[in-house]
């Protein structure tokens, strides 16, 4: 890849997918620590989301790359050894523990929003100190382990958090606490960082410029080829503030400028980028998969306009409530609205649409195979396809056969 100054649109897609470890076949064996480590190394940031319409989204991100794996085994891998930690990176995320010092300036600058009920709490400082003292003396705990504290009255439609939970999340955002593990209901268990983060990461001190430059370098490795805004978005950084750091990475040789077909902005190619001759296989993608999480990039790479419609009133939804893109080779060829009905043991396809210009016959069989694999992983016995969507009939026929 060294010396490339122009890329076709297809080359850019293949580079982007290879950077996300989607150029490999899924393991032929049960995925283990080696596979988890490789996938997380490619991702750099695993965004957490616990909407459980299908399966919590971060589990699906791993499944897209690894196929069927043991989620409990993955949880033990992530939380059990100090190699990974939760942080506010690209939203709430799992990151390698060596990311801890890179985010120190973000933790130090954290201030709760003006709507945070902690502002109205009498003796706030004393209460927050008492929470830390209890963790110090009692060990890892959840909000339920703290004494209840009266909070402000809720307005209709408010999402309720208790004052103890607000306090723990405040300390987490500031770096006074870290996440030990998650309970079966996904609730965070908090402990002191010194009990969870290796000392050489916990006490590493980096200036802001060095930290930002390293986060952008990691973003470039995870993206393969990217615009300035793509790079900044990966760790939720300011495009204006990152511009000088990107230029420094170009000067170092970690990035090189490239022209990409149909891109209106300059591209930056990572020195680690790979260009496979082809991308094979298929995978459903989580709405929070790095391949599509920055919607302008998804549209630029795949000509795929994507918005998640969970918060859109039902009557105004175009595609559905929890819609997943379907990748076939190096293209996104369809989108399906999925739901796991665990009581009925059923994977429900509430709508299925192929993308414009994609032959239905080329998509239905591949998508049916992917849905069978997904339903087996989720221990769902049957797949039911509704009639909604231009791909629905062909997909139903493919699943029956």
The percent range for strand residues is 15-25%
Shape: globular
Treating each run of at least 4 consecutive H or I residues as one helix, how many helices? 14
Would you tell me the structural class of the helices and strands?
alpha+beta
Helix content: 25-40%
Uncertain parts: none
Strand order of the largest sheet: 10-11-12-13-14
Gyration radius from CA atoms, angstroms: 22 Å
- How far the N terminus sits from the C terminus, by CA atoms, comes to 43 Å
Largest beta-sheet characterization: 5 strands, mixed
**Average pLDDT reading:** 95
> How many E strands?
14
Order of helices and strands: EHHEHHEEHHHEEHHEHHEEEHEEEHEH
Summarize the structure.
With 401 residues, this protein is of the alpha+beta class.
Description:
Helix 9 packs across helix 10 (228-234) and helix 9 crosses helix 11. The strands form four sheets. The protein has a five-stranded mixed beta sheet. The protein is globular and about 65 Å long. With 401 residues, it is an alpha+beta fold. The chain has helices spanning 9-19, 33-43, 57-66, 71-79, 104-108, 124-138, 163-174, 199-202, 208-223, 228-234, 239-252, 295-302, 360-377, 392-400; strands spanning 6-7, 46-47, 84-89, 91-96, 178-182, 188-191, 225-226, 255-260, 267-270, 282-284, 323-328, 331-341, 346-354, 382-385. It is built from 14 helices and 14 strands.
């Amino acid at each position: 890849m060294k010396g490339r100054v122009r890329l076709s649109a297809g080359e850019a897609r293949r580079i982007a997918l290879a950077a996300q470890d989607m150029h490999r076949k899924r393991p032929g064996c049960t995925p283990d620590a080696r596979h988890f480590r490789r996938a997380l190394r490619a991702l750099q940031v695993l965004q957490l989301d616990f909407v459980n319409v299908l399966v919590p989204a971060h589990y699906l991100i791993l499944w897209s790359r690894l196929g069927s794996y043991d989620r409990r085994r993955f949880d033990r891998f992530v939380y059990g050894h100090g190699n990974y930690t939760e942080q506010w990176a690209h939203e709430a995320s799992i990151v390698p523990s060596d990311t801890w010092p890179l985010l120190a300036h973000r933790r130090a600058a954290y201030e709760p929003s003006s709507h945070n009920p902690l502002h109205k709490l009498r003796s706030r400082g004393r209460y927050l100190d008492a929470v830390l003292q209890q963790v110090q003396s009692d060990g890892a705990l959840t909000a339920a382990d703290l004494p209840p504290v009266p909070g402000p009255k809720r307005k209709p439609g408010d999402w309720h958090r208790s004052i103890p939970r607000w306090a723990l999340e405040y300390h987490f955002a500031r770096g006074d606490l870290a996440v030990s593990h998650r309970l079966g209901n996904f609730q965070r268990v908090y402990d002191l960082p010194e009990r969870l983060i290796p000392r050489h990461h916990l006490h590493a001190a980096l200036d802001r410029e060095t930290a930002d430059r390293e986060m952008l370098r990691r973003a470039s490795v995870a993206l393969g080829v990217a615009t300035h805004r793509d790079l900044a978005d990966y760790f939720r950084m300011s495009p204006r503030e990152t511009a000088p750091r990107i230029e420094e990475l170009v000067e170092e040789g970690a990035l090189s400028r490239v022209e990409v077909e149909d891109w209106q902005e300059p591209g930056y190619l990572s020195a680690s980028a790979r260009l496979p001759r082809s991308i094979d296989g298929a995978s459903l993608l989580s709405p929070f998969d790095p391949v599509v999480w920055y919607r302008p990039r998804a549209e630029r790479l795949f000509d795929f306009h994507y918005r998640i419609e969970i918060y859109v009133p039902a009557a105004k939804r175009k595609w559905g409530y929890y819609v997943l893109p379907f990748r076939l080779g190096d293209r996104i060829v369809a989108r399906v609205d999925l739901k796991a009905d665990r009581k009925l043991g059923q994977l429900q396809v509430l709508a299925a649409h192929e993308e414009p210009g994609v032959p239905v016959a080329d998509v239905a069989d591949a998508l049916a195979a992917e849905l069978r694999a997904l339903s087996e992983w989720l221990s769902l016995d049957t797949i039911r396809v509704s009639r909604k969507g231009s791909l629905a009939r062909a997909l139903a026929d493919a699943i029956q056969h």
